[in-house]
Design goal:
2 domains; 40% helix; 15% strand; globular; catalytic activity; AB_hydrolase_fold; AB_hydrolase_1; AB hydrolase-1 domain-containing protein
Length: 269
């Protein structure tokens, strides 16, 4: 896995969205490293600079391998979209290795999905670009879908942020498909078992189903705190990094560094 690390201290592991790569977290990684944490991010299989053969794999197993390679027994996990889904599944499988979770517009394995008529229109445009094999058009549609927001005007977010999104997603779209990912167990029906302190964020311009999911998570997860980010869509870490950094650092500051080092404890496997 292609990764990057900054700082020293207790580890914070960043898990990127399915239309991005590790670069979506550069601002957050710098902020937490300067605040005394060890920031780690990597490109999952099929993204960024990571190259992988088309073989059987599981993103949760890959995450465990990344931690084990660095002798990290427990960490705070920050995940957006599909990265959040990996974090939740990891927390269910290895609860003793999770100090806390920050989930942004998160996916949840087994969660239901629905779309408004307006949102369905952009999904149809995405499907059409995919069926025609027009990856450049698909990238632009997905930028509208996920960066601008499905109910917002195309091009709402521009400049360097849009260029970064198109580059990250373009690299993923250009890779050969990985067809042998193992199906993970349903997590939607087991959210009450995720007991780690959790900060939930969602953008007001995201898909309505993701906003509804955010509300369900806030009511179901026993130690969850929820924040609605006004005026941003699915990738707030690059659209409004200062806001995300502030909320993330407030959450991390709630952890008492004077407690026993969790890395001295035996994790639950």
């Amino acid at each position: 896995m292609s990764g990057v690390e900054h700082g020293e201290g207790l580890p914070v592991v960043f898990l990127h969205a399915g239309v991005c790569d590790k670069r979506m977290w550069l601002s957050q990684m710098q902020a937490v490293a300067e605040d005394g944490w060890h920031a780690i991010a990597y490109d999952r299989r099929g993204y960024g600079d990571t190259e992988s053969a088309d073989e059987v794999f599981d993103h949760v197993d890959d995450l465990k391998a990344v931690l084990d390679q660095r002798d990290i027994h427990a960490a705070v996990f920050v995940g957006c979209s599909l990265g959040g889904g990996v974090a939740i599944d990891f927390a269910l499988q290895y609860p003793g290795r999770v100090l806390g979770l920050v989930l942004i517009g998160t996916s949840v394995t087994g969660a239901p999905w629905s779309a408004t008529n307006e949102e369905s229109a952009i999904e149809m445009a995405e499907d059409d670009a995919w069926e025609r094999g027009d990856l450049d058009l698909l990238n632009k549609v997905q930028a509208h879908e996920w960066l601008d927001g499905p109910r917002s005007a195309s091009g709402r977010v521009g400049g360097e942020v849009r260029a970064l999104f198109l580059d990250m997603n373009g690299k993923a779209l250009a890779k050969s498909p990985l067809t042998l990912e193992e199906e993970r167990a349903d997590a939607w029906s087991r959210l009450e078992a995720v007991s780690a302190p959790t900060l939930l964020m969602v953008g007001s311009e995201d898909f309505s189903a993701i906003i509804d999911r955010h509300e369900t998570l806030s009511e179901t997860m026993p130690n969850a705190f929820a924040a609605l980010l006004e005026g941003v869509a699915h990738i707030p870490s690059i659209e409004h990094p200062a806001l995300v950094n502030s909320l993330l650092l407030q959450f991390l500051d709630a952890f008492d560094d004077d407690d026993d080092d969790p890395e001295d404890d035996d994790p639950e496997d």
